Amino acid sequence: MKKRGLFIIAALFLVSLNLRMGIASISPVLDTISHDLHLSNGVVSWLTAIPVICMGAFAFFSAALGSRFGLEKTIAACLVLIGIATCTRAFAHSALLLLLSAFFLGIGLAIAGPLVSGYIKKTFPNRIGMMIGVYSVGMGIGASLSAGLMIPLQKSLHHSWQLALASWTLFAVIAFLAWLPLVKKRVKVKQAAPRFQLPFKSKKAWIFTLIFGLQSGVFYCMSTWLAPAAHSIGLSQEQSGVLVTLFTFIQMLFSFIIPSLADIYKNDKAWLAGSTFFVLIGLLSIVYGLSNLWLATIVIAIGLGGLFPLALALPLNATSSSSEASSWTAMMQGVGYMLGGIIPAIAGWLRDFIAYDKQVFVLMIVLCLLLFIALLGWGKGQMEEQTSRS
């Protein structure tokens, strides 16, 4: 049982590697894509906005699909879709095909995300914080690898950003092969299918959704525009790439440390507020020149490292079963990712029309302030709302 548990953790880690690669790998070559395909900042920003919006729109179907076909089988199908969408980027010599790959990638990510959370709830009910940390670290490593190695990979592949983007298909294949034994070993038990119902009437669920959407907006805005914004401020393209790698590495590291600590010292609201404070301090340091860009980016990464896994764990701690956790997560990610997905596009539009190098960071400051307001709206009445549910 212990050996099987370690195998499941390894398989979950490999799955999670693929849940940000297709988005993070775009950022370092965003300017090159824009130049080669003659796209404005507003248009090219949709390459990250589309999959995030899809992660919201299609998340609503995840719990129903998981209930019908099983968590393991549905996650395996998502890995296939992610791999195919990533692979098609090798032939993306037009904006249309590239945007289509982003769309289908987003569908795979949308359905897989809530189901992985439900699987963690089902398999590791007493280790939610630690497993969300493993899940987040996997996504962080995937984002870090794909962002940090894109430029060297592009150069080694005859300067083809298409082949460099498509090369991340390999990780989807590896994850699928690792996950396949879990699909085959799933025990079929005859029972009534759990009723799937999104918690639209729950104030607590809506607060979780707003928190998730705002932190998602900050994260994807930072992931998409950090390199171009740093280049505008004065860093070289290589330095900007290193800055993105530093950001993703620090964010990944603290995405394990902070939720693990939150598992011991239980106060979700305090941890979320503290993480938001770190992000806000880092952003203010950039806008007002209080510290250099490298240090400020580290501070932002620490805060975002805590925000995502803490927000992701909220419905897992508030529900009593894996199906309920999947439905709450589906709503949270569904609405939240649609909210967060439009933020990078808004930032791209601001870069096109406002002649100020730090406009993206000002936008994220506004989002952090809204996040604090959402946390203030999370009162003790909502903390106890779920106790009577079963």
TrEMBL record:
<dbReference type="GO" id="GO:0005886">
    <property type="term" value="C:plasma membrane"/>
</dbReference>
<dbReference type="Pfam" id="PF07690">
    <property type="entry name" value="MFS_1"/>
</dbReference>
<keyword id="KW-0812">Transmembrane</keyword>
<feature type="transmembrane region" description="Helical">
    <location>
        <begin position="239"/>
        <end position="258"/>
    </location>
</feature>
<protein>
    <submittedName>
        <fullName>MFS transporter</fullName>
    </submittedName>
</protein>
<keyword id="KW-0813">Transport</keyword>
<feature type="transmembrane region" description="Helical">
    <location>
        <begin position="270"/>
        <end position="288"/>
    </location>
</feature>
<feature type="transmembrane region" description="Helical">
    <location>
        <begin position="294"/>
        <end position="314"/>
    </location>
</feature>
<dbReference type="InterPro" id="IPR036259">
    <property type="entry name" value="MFS_trans_sf"/>
</dbReference>
<feature type="transmembrane region" description="Helical">
    <location>
        <begin position="132"/>
        <end position="153"/>
    </location>
</feature>
<keyword id="KW-1133">Transmembrane helix</keyword>
<dbReference type="GO" id="GO:0022857">
    <property type="term" value="F:transmembrane transporter activity"/>
</dbReference>
<feature type="transmembrane region" description="Helical">
    <location>
        <begin position="360"/>
        <end position="379"/>
    </location>
</feature>
<feature type="domain" description="Major facilitator superfamily (MFS) profile">
    <location>
        <begin position="6"/>
        <end position="383"/>
    </location>
</feature>
<dbReference type="InterPro" id="IPR020846">
    <property type="entry name" value="MFS_dom"/>
</dbReference>
<feature type="transmembrane region" description="Helical">
    <location>
        <begin position="46"/>
        <end position="67"/>
    </location>
</feature>
<feature type="transmembrane region" description="Helical">
    <location>
        <begin position="74"/>
        <end position="92"/>
    </location>
</feature>
<feature type="transmembrane region" description="Helical">
    <location>
        <begin position="98"/>
        <end position="120"/>
    </location>
</feature>
<dbReference type="InterPro" id="IPR011701">
    <property type="entry name" value="MFS"/>
</dbReference>
<dbReference type="InterPro" id="IPR052524">
    <property type="entry name" value="MFS_Cyanate_Porter"/>
</dbReference>
<feature type="transmembrane region" description="Helical">
    <location>
        <begin position="165"/>
        <end position="184"/>
    </location>
</feature>
<feature type="transmembrane region" description="Helical">
    <location>
        <begin position="205"/>
        <end position="227"/>
    </location>
</feature>
<keyword id="KW-0472">Membrane</keyword>
<feature type="transmembrane region" description="Helical">
    <location>
        <begin position="335"/>
        <end position="354"/>
    </location>
</feature>
